[in-house]
Amino acid sequence: MSSPHHSWSSGTNSSIWAPHFRPFDTPWPAPSEVTQRIHADVDTEQISMMLRNLGITPSPGPSESAPTTPPALSPSTQILSLGSSSTVHTPTPTRMAEPFETPKGRLLHMPVPTLNAHERVVSWMQRQSTASPAPRADWLPCGGWPRGVAGSMWAPRPAPFSGRDVSNVARVPQERTEQALNEPVNFLRLLQPSSQPPYGLFVTRIVKNSDQQASIFLQQKLKAANSEEGRRPIVDAIVEHGFEMMTNRFGNWAVQRCLEAPCMPKERKRVADVMQCVLSTCLAVADWNRGRVIELATNCYGTHVVQKALDCAEPIRIMVVSEMLQGDLAATLMNKHASHVWTKIMELSWSDPAPPIFDYVNRAMQGRWADLARHETGSLIVQHAFENLEHSDKGDCVREVLDSIDRLATDQWGSWVVQHLLEHGTEVDRAEAVKALVEHISTLAADPQGIKVIEKAIKSGGHSAVERVARRLSEPAKSGRRPLIVDLALGATGSQLISMLLPMLAKSQWLALHDSVKGHIVTLKGSKSGSRIVWLFERMDRGKVI
């Protein structure tokens, strides 16, 4: 007995129209019955009605076996059909099934599901296109289709170009560029002398992605290049994005390398010119009178580039200094980044005649030096001025500090300026500072910052400062009731000052202070700090100290 054979036309498994069934719980109809039922269900009028409901006008005329004109589609259906990504059943070669009685045949012999309305329409369209003698291209839904067309227009293909898609195509180079920014690079291979690295791409990687390895690579290539021709493409790429590189965390190091050897003065001048104007407007409307040096100096990364530019030739130095003088000097002097530029300017040595930089600075800062000294960053600026400027250049600053010394001595940052003046100032300035401090010793001795200033004045002022302080302590206080030493001995900071001063006194000075204390022993012993001062005097009186 021969086993029945079944022709199995398999569809695409991912089709959403494929019905779900259980292959082993469904009765197995004969293949001939299935085929007869499918052909019986395919009615021409019914298919035409379904096509019209879908917006498709069936092509009249030739028979089904050899159609010459495919169905005409409405514009909306054309776009939807071409833009659809759904999978369509396509005919596949028929294969013979295993005998039904064998176990393998039961696994492979699966019934063909009954086609629904949509699948019947699609099956009819496939037969129409398959029976055509040759595909026609004159009825394609979109003219000028740039890609190849499959044998059946219903096969899935990319969506056609539209107005919105053109913008997507225009973004393809940008997407490729973004992809190149993140691709790994073999920098070791590109370090070979025969290589031609894409320096512009590396600069873009630094600006957009803060690529540290790309910055190190550019620095190494600049250092290894022995000729101007070898450095030109690197400098060109850096100058093209000069300001962005200068303000970048890793890019500023590559720019600094352009301002060092072996780069020639001409190449350094090109980099310095970027500070004067924005590169995009250099060739058009460049404001050469007001550049971006101040903006760079106040940037945490750009300030390093400006400081490096001050190590170049004098024309570049003059350009930087002139730009710095055009801004608000007080603001830049107090800025924590620009202040380093100013300290660098103060340390510069100029060829004769030196530019009158600080004449302009003194005029702009007149009456504001004391306020600058009370600022955290300004305090360092004033101290640098004391150390590096000529006396004629810093005279106005010193005068304003001495006039406000009582206010600065009790300030957190100003006290450092006063101590610096006492330690490194001239004899005249130091004596004037000690005199002003002794006059306000009653106030300063009660302040934590002021007591440090008084101690610095005693140590750096010598015997004249000690004598002046001892004489002032033996004089009456502002109240006039008792000597000033008694008021100071009752306080913690004042007793600390007296304890430091007593071993430094001569015997005559010690006796004068002892006479001032003898009449207030009871008052002093009433406090812990006063009791210590009484004990020190008693020790010295017994000859153990003097």
What can you tell me about this protein's structure?
This protein folds into four domains: 1-133, no CATH class; 192-329, Leucine-rich Repeat Variant; 356-465; 475-546. Strands 1-2 form a two-stranded antiparallel sheet. It contains 34 helices and two strands. It is mainly alpha-helical and 546 residues long. The radius of gyration is 47 Å and the shape is elongated. The longest helix has 27 residues, at 448-474. This is Meiotic coiled-coil protein 2.
Topology, element by element:
Blueprint: H1 31-41, H2 44-53, E1 56-57, E2 72-73, H3 75-83, H4 103-108, H5 117-131, H6 163-170, H7 172-182, H8 187-190, H9 199-209, H10 212-224, H11 228-240, H12 242-246, H13 251-258, H14 265-276, H15 279-282, H16 293-297, H17 302-309, H18 314-325, H19 329-334, H20 338-346, H21 357-364, H22 369-373, H23 376-388, H24 391-403, H25 405-409, H26 414-424, H27 427-439, H28 441-444, H29 448-474, H30 484-489, H31 492-501, H32 507-518, H33 521-525, H34 528-541
Antiparallel strand pairs: 1-2
Helix pairs in contact: 9-10, 10-13, 11-14, 13-17, 14-18, 17-20, 20-23, 23-26, 26-27, 26-29, 27-29, 29-31, 29-32, 31-34
